[in-house]
Amino acid sequence: MTELPAGPRAPSGGWRTATVAGVRHPLEGAVELRLDVHDRVDHLPGQHYVVRLTAPDGYTAQRSYSVASAPGDPLVELFVERLEDGEVSTFLADVVEPGDELEVRGPIGGWFVWEGECPALLVGGGTGVVPFVAMLRTARALGRTDLLRVAAATRTLAGLPYADELVDAGALVVSSREAHGIRPAGRLTAADLVPLWEPEQTAYVCGSESFAEAASQLLVGMGVPAPDIRVERFGPSG
Amino acid sequence: MPGPTRGFLGRRRERDTRLPPGQYDAGREWPVLTAEPTPRISPETWSITVDGRVETPTTWSWDEAHRLPRSEYRGAIHCVTTWSKFDTWFAGVSVDTLLEAARPTPDAHFVMATSKTGYTTNLPLEDVTGGKAWVVWEYDGGPLPVEHGGPVRLLVPHLYFWKSAKWVSRLTLMQRDQPGFWEQNGYHDRGDPWREQRYQGD
């Protein structure tokens, strides 16, 4: 048995104040926040930040969100899906305005990161594409887009975060509810992934529990060695 | 501590005293968070080994482990991603029972738990002795589901749940502490939810 290796020596930062520089709602039920993080520690693509909200009585709630921006971006970009019963995501989507200050902590995580050197297959479902956007942006900045192959699964193209950017980067988009080109509507299958797979790749899978489980099992079934598959599962944390 | 976040009141709530700081009650949900693909392990091929700084390195098969005295845990579990779950019910064997057989040497102070997937997590010996830790194969009266670590996982409910290694197959006693998987990847070495030891430096 091989020990699960540690990830690269990824940077990590403590609690910081961030000033909200931009708020956009590119999709219904989601918010994109652009944050000016004071005294920032630059992240590696794939890492995440924690956002902590404090009520006047001292009550706090905190949640983790993947970073969509590349390390070279002067701002940290978070893409947050608004969960109807979510305590933090509804606040971020409905209340936060430019100029607000938020308490954040990051970057965090040393496993689900891409250092910009190795070939990688990125398989994202829904908002699970967010860390892959950071990887694509980093690859563009490094001139190494040849290293990345991307598959993005969604219900509809219109509901996919960063859809235009992903399509422009050559991502395979698989929609369960509509056809794309010659690909009919349907869930992600091994037939979608086989053409993207090369033996030296590390595979990254990100999405909901059910998506991450299904996609990682597809890869295992294709013969991708389990230690070469890194999985990030979103919990239902709102 | 910084001041309040503009406009944030939080849910109107009766704060449950069983909830550590920064945690919320997941209710009936039991989120799945693992960094690797879920392995399929049949009970016939599973075994648990206690080795390292022990007098008698010992391995138990599935059947042998089930013949050990049954031990249960009923109570809360806490995940570092901020959910907690109350009134869980696990059953298996106490880690104390395994250690009684393997007999740690006097210089054993830490444990590395290793999973079938290669996942590792480190614990001080005192966090897995004295009725605080179990190796469990039952949840809520049924087999432990595979996505939650079945057939068998470690259970150390007084620490954040990444310490409760899924698909556990080995406990190695060590003289000195060594970081496990998440501990090398930015997370706290001990992970006490009541002290909010989530990340390195907490």
Automatic annotation (TrEMBL), chain A:
It comes from the Bacteria. Residues 13-114 form the FAD-binding FR-type domain. The keyword Iron applies. GO terms for molecular function: 2 iron, 2 sulfur cluster binding; oxidoreductase activity. Keywords: 2Fe-2S, Iron, Iron-sulfur, Metal-binding. PROSITE patterns: FAD_FR. It holds the Pfam family FAD_binding_6. Its cofactor is FAD. This is Ferredoxin-NADP reductase.
Automatic annotation (TrEMBL), chain B:
CDD domains: arch_bact_SO_family_Moco. Residues 186-202 have a biased composition (Basic and acidic residues). Residues 37-182 form the Oxidoreductase molybdopterin-binding domain. SUPFAM superfamilies: Oxidoreductase molybdopterin-binding domain. It holds the Pfam family Oxidored_molyb. InterPro entries: OxRdtase_Mopterin-bd_dom, OxRdtase_Mopterin-bd_sf. It comes from the Bacteria. This is DMSO/TMAO reductase YedYZ, molybdopterin-dependent catalytic subunit.
